[in-house]
Structures
1.
Amino acid sequence: MSTFMKVSTALACFFSVGQSLVQGDANSLLVVDLSYELHRASTFDTKLGIYNFSNIRYAVPPLGDLLFRPPQPPASNYSSINDGLDSRICPQANVGGLITSAQWDFSYITNRTLPNISYSPSPSVGSVPIPRDPRENEGCLFLDVFVPQSVLNSARTVGTFGFLSGPQFSKSGTPNAGLWDQRLALQWVQDKTHLFGGDKMQITVARGSAGAGSIIHQLTAFGGASKVASSPAQEDQAFNAFLQLANVSSLGEARAVSSDKLIYANAAQVAGSGYGFFTSGPSRDGTFVPQHPRLLLKDGKSDKSVSVLVGHNTNEGLAFAPPVRDDAGFRELETLKFPNVNQSVIDFIVNDLYPPIFNGTFGYYEQVGRTAVATTESHFTCAAYALKSAVEKSYGYVFNTPPALHVADATYMFYDPSTKSSINTTVAYILQDYLINFILHGAPDNRPDGFSSVPTYGKNANVVPINANNVTMAKDPAGNARCKWWEQVLYN
Ligand SMILES: *[C@@H]1O[C@H](CO)[C@@H](O)[C@H](O)[C@H]1NC(C)=O
Ligand SMILES: *[C@@H]1O[C@H](CO)[C@@H](O)[C@H](O)[C@H]1NC(C)=O
Ligand SMILES: *[C@@H]1O[C@H](CO)[C@@H](O)[C@H](O)[C@H]1NC(C)=O
Ligand SMILES: *[C@@H]1O[C@H](CO)[C@@H](O)[C@H](O)[C@H]1NC(C)=O
Ligand SMILES: *[C@@H]1O[C@H](CO)[C@@H](O)[C@H](O)[C@H]1NC(C)=O
Ligand SMILES: *[C@@H]1O[C@H](CO)[C@@H](O)[C@H](O)[C@H]1NC(C)=O
Ligand SMILES: *[C@@H]1O[C@H](CO)[C@@H](O)[C@H](O)[C@H]1NC(C)=O
Ligand SMILES: *[C@@H]1O[C@H](CO)[C@@H](O)[C@H](O)[C@H]1NC(C)=O
Ligand SMILES: *[C@@H]1O[C@H](CO)[C@@H](O)[C@H](O)[C@H]1NC(C)=O
């Protein structure tokens, strides 16, 4: 799933290099005064005319005692000009199940070949690369700014650093720190974009996958009032497992331990999450995330001033769906996913929402397909549906060019004509036009699709299916009764 959120619908303009830019050193690379440091562009692309300001610190490094807490604005440091040339990346982690599914999902989609692997729900898959990439660093709250075009890119990545939670953790840690980091980055853009010639009323945020989910969290931030528990037992369990992996017994000790150990513990925990699971993610916390975001969207407790363009791929869930073999396996998986619900809810999921009827009426012909459809809807397309339904000025596309797996549309969106590629370039240009016109004008128009304009999602759940044969207009396949059911969040 990909989400593009535009904060204003008024006419946008390209950023132009304004007077606040000052001339730099002998290399003539520009230096900007950010009012807490001087930052010099790392590079200037003379062909495209784009300055690249790299590794701009927007928060104090979250190390030691600042770890697992909301970020702090950066301290003033004018001791020298920062050129952003130190290379660093956030701590990385591989989700183990994805490596296994990559071995079979393509031939399953193409030829319906069932995977020949044994799957068990016990949570240990994946490996933890050692040695680690030397650029990995916990203190990775940085932004890159490209002028005249500005691209926003910040995150502590999936994993433990930004998303520990639960009663035990919360005694001295802040849940959802990753969302607070992202919020501070968005605030930084509001405060500083004019220094790069930008207009703070014309900001577009674009993210895919878990990042698209984080945009939903930003739209529903602080959305309700009630304080609700999330899954305290599971969250405490994950927190304690993390402490164990880091070989410490408290959050205080974790803050004092070396970065290497924490980076390893994070990678090990995510890798060992089990096929179809991640361990870490946002949780209800009574403030930033007062309720499940789908409920907040349904109840109108979200930002109304934005327009959104939301895309999903047809087979979003396949890579995250373990190949279960029978009814018992399907039930066991759903119970693991929703550990706190009553049996009646699980019964409804397995008997009514995704019943064992394999003649295609429900979009599947065997258990692997059934699990994939259930995962696609519960984790991805019903979230996209909830967002598109909640925002008045929303647009949607459904990317269905085979294999249309999770994040498949990104390859087309970032297609570069100067590189060799076998993809359908018409499809690529349609997606690129949608994105560029959404950024410029707040609507995903283009010429190659043949429509005079793309209608808003509206009551009819209008979307543009984009496949390898044609580009049409249709009702969103996620605009169905099952997504209405998932929207009630009876399962958490
Ligand atoms: C200020 O920035 C310089 C250059 O990036 C760095 O070497 C120094 O450690 C910084 N000072 C503080 C107090 O962070
Ligand atoms: C921007 O500059 C950084 C630091 O030199 C470099 O690593 C990065 O590749 C550059 N990005 C582009 C798109 O040129
Ligand atoms: C699908 O089956 C055909 C015919 O057996 C084979 O040539 C092709 O490689 C298979 N494709 C995949 C992705 O497995
Ligand atoms: C399935 O995997 C097993 C164990 O790796 C192997 O012995 C068997 O030949 C495979 N079956 C098929 C049909 O590929
Ligand atoms: C864990 O900590 C204990 C006590 O500090 C130490 O003896 C042990 O070597 C550590 N184990 C690992 C794997 O770091
Ligand atoms: C589970 O069922 C019990 C008894 O019927 C009910 O009181 C409770 O609210 C239900 N819990 C959920 C999460 O639906
Ligand atoms: C599929 O099976 C169900 C239950 O037996 C039946 O009601 C339905 O008509 C069947 N659909 C098709 C397309 O065969
Ligand atoms: C590429 O996609 C477009 C839009 O779906 C379609 O009209 C065209 O036939 C496709 N081209 C090829 C070579 O498949
Ligand atoms: C568009 O392509 C899809 C997938 O191949 C096909 O099912 C549908 O009939 C086509 N629609 C039109 C209007 O050609």
2.
Amino acid sequence: MKKLSMCILALGLIFASSCENEENSTELQNLENQEEITATQRKCYSAEMLEKQLSENPEMAKKLVEIEEKSRNFSENDLKAPNGTIGIPVIVHVIYRTNRQNISNAQIQSQIDVLNKDFTATNSDVSQVPNEFAGRVANANFRFTLQQVTRKQSSRRSWGTRNRMKFASRGGVDAIDPSRNLNIWVCNIGGGILGYAQFPGGNPATDGVVVSPQYFGDRGFVSAPFDEGRTATHEVGHWLNLRHIWGDGNCSRDDFVSDTPVSSAPNYGCPRYPTVRCGSNDMTMNYMDYVDDRCMYMFSNGQKNRMRALFSSGGARESFL
Ligand SMILES: [Zn+2]
């Protein structure tokens, strides 16, 4: 009964897909001994991770309701950030088995540079946004600075999606002060999963983002078509409370952002404009869709407000200010 009511709550709040299934632990197990896979389609595990955490932790659902309320009532006046710029210190944990997985500092910095462009709408490809959506392009005004890089060699071929990489006791590396730093673990996830993030409101010990090394940054050991650093842009979007733009469900599922069109499924590759779903044109070029790196180049104003609401008084990421 308790599990059922949790599922109903989670359904109303979040997603349609998973309550009929127990966690597919076989699949997750199998992800933990895989060689690198070269992905041809974007695949992110953040939504599934949120469902899993909600099913394991009833308190988290309460927190999410509070965060949603804050997002709805947010106005820029609530922000204490000087100049409106919100600084995000970043710590990158590189966990590698092979030499090429031990990515260079230049590759790591290239990812920081991409984040700074994408989160201020200074990316050069933003000019490709079609007229219909041009007025909705947002400068989210976040500034990412690389604070520290940790490196650890491991014999593990892949790390799966059970947060093992986030604990020294399980062969990974512990998060460093996650209330003040965005922790990013760069390690081979397996299963063709490019990355995953923890949404705000979860366990601080696992807070942050995980990205496979070949999808991190835009130079060095990178793998097309995910070689422009947009996997981290997408995952940091989740870390800042953005949902997938199709709401992880059918036309009635929302991403809780009013200026992104309703959609019923992810888009892949590099879709032509217009792509029509649910009676409107999809914003396929949004970072929170599943398109290739070179085909995503905007956040919307609604997404910006949703991200920045976390930094208002009492917000889930206020401790960063
Ligand atoms: Zn995602």
